[in-house]
Design brief:
Largest sheet: 9 strands, mixed
Structural class: alpha/beta
EC number: 4.2.1.40
CATH topology of the largest domain: TIM Barrel
InterPro entries: DgoD-like, Enolase-like_C_sf, Enolase-like_N, Enolase_C-like, Mandelate_racemase_C, Mandelate_racemase_N_dom
Shape: globular
Mean pLDDT: 97
CATH architecture of the largest domain: Alpha-Beta Barrel
Strand order of the largest sheet: 3-2-7-8-9-10-11-12-13
Enzyme class: lyase
CATH superfamily of the largest domain: Enolase-like C-terminal domain
Distance between the termini: 54 Å
Bound molecules: magnesium ion
Strand content: 15-25%
Order of helices and strands: EEEEEHHHHHEEHEHEHEHEHEHEHEH
Number of domains: 2
Radius of gyration: 21 Å
Organism: Sinorhizobium medicae (strain WSM419) (Ensifer medicae)
Number of helices: 13
Pfam families: MR_MLE_C, MR_MLE_N
Oligomer: single chain
CATH class of the largest domain: Alpha Beta
């Protein structure tokens, strides 16, 4: 049988609206996600799909520039692909880990389509048919067009979470935080956790706190049903000091995002739960490898979300399907989106979980109409600055942060 060879690569930037702007400790998603959809073509007529966060002309040009590396390559040769695109010493000059991830997704998609099997079968076979997710709640600015969707008070957060729980069936809930003063967030988080009854919760201020503030905050929430305490402070050493002063497991998607850091964390533990991101780690397979290391050393794992449309979500589902040690619910921003670019999408939550696609490859296909529609929307709106807050012009965060947003500010701002 003739093996496929890569013939071309194409990248398309799309912008898909969110229900409302999502706030975090470093800034905001300004009412939309910008994503790059990658298509890798082969000489057997199969097209593999990939996705990366961000986009625009420079991202599209960067993918086009990889064409000379990829043409003629056998998509089954994934280890050679890794060294070709992101050899760790060459990467000092060209950090292409995230681009490699998008191409790895596409190659796995091609392999699955070529063999007629879903990607999870190539990764070791699925341990579960659906991947459970946590609700992923944010402090939100109001939608500028409708004036609705604001999340600022405990009452708003509770109402929105209970409505989502009813719709999607979530039993674990995450609050992205680090936006308002810690005492205010403590009050909101406690009221929220109480309103959610027996469901578990997780608090993630994106490393905004000083070590001392993180320890103080931990003492205020330790009695709740916490899955873990996610990135309360910055750095392995800071996390280690917090860990020595709390009973909660600590989780991270910021200070252990590669094998070097994973090794450091095993030799001198600072974090208990490693949140595996198919983009940050450079693909689905690096996440599976890292999960194996965590299994060996009995560290916890979960599936991280750095924002996703249906292609990236499929990578998270195939990853979540094959991990024997996945005991925490995965994260996804997905329910914050108003639409997707895949045929039949958006994918649906049932009982808090999303089914692992069963069609060959990643199991998702592009809806060309919507891809075009949201590529046009990107051309109209352009990008946005993830590290800026549209409600606070001139503001930027520091580490540790002390420049909190005002919880009494209920303006509807333009963005
Ligand atoms: Mg996080």
């Amino acid at each position: 049988m003739k093996r496929p060879r890569i013939t071309d690569i194409r990248a398309t930037t799309v912008t898909v609206p969110l229900e409302a702007p999502l706030r975090h400790s470093n800034g905001a998603h300004w009412g939309r996600f910008v994503r790059t959809i990658v298509e890798v073509e082969t000489d057997v007529g199969i097209i593999g799909l990939g996705e990366m966060g961000g986009g625009g002309e420079s991202a599209e040009a960067a993918f086009r520039a990889l064409k000379s590396y990829l043409v003629g390559h056998d998509p089954f040769e994934l280890e050679n692909l890794r060294f070709m695109i992101c050899n760790p010493t060459a990467s000092l000059y060209n950090n292409r880990t995230q681009m490699h991830a998008a191409i790895e997704f596409a190659c796995l998609d091609i392999m699955g389509k070529f063999l007629g099997v879903p990607v999870c079968d190539i990764l070791g076979g699925k341990m579960r048919d659906a991947v459970p997710f946590a609700s992923y709640m944010f402090f939100r600015l109001a939608n500028k067009d409708t004036g609705e969707g604001e999340t600022r008070t405990a009452d708003q957060l509770i109402e929105q979470t209970l409505a989502l729980k009813k719709k999607c069936g979530f039993t674990s809930h995450k609050l992205k935080s680090g936006v308002f003063p810690p005492d205010y967030e403590l009050e909101v988080f406690r009221a929220w956790a109480k309103a959610l009854g027996p469901d578990s919760v997780r608090y993630d201020p994106n490393a905004a706190f000083s070590v001392e503030e993180a320890i103080r905050f931990a003492r205020g929430i330790e009695d709740l049903n916490n899955d873990y305490y996610e990135d309360p402070t910055w750095g392995l050493n800071g996390m280690r000091r917090v860990r020595e002063n709390t009973t909660m497991p600590l989780a991270t998607n910021t200070v252990v995002v590669n094998f070097e850091q994973l090794a450091a964390n095993i030799l001198n533990p600072a974090v208990d739960v490693i949140l595996l991101d198919t983009t940050f780690w450079g693909g689905i397979r690096p996440c599976v490898k890292a999960a194996g290391v965590c299994e060996t050393f009995q560290l916890g794992i979960a599936v991280h979300s750095s924002g996703e449309l249906g292609v990236q979500l499929a990578t998270m589902l195939h990853l979540g399907a094959v991990l024997p040690n996945l005991v925490f619910h995965a994260d996804a921003h997905y329910h914050q989106l108003t639409d997707d670019i895949i045929i039949g999408g958006p994918m649906r939550y049932e009982n808090g979980a999303i089914k692992v696609p069963t069609a060959p490859g990643l199991g998702v296909e592009l809806d060309r109409n919507r891809l075009g529609q949201y590529a046009d929307l990107h051309k109209t709106l352009g990008g946005y600055s993830y590290d800026r807050d549209p409600s606070r012009p001139g503001w930027f965060s520091v580490v540790p942060n002390t420049r909190w947003a005002d919880p009494s500010d209920d303006r509807v701002v333009d963005y």
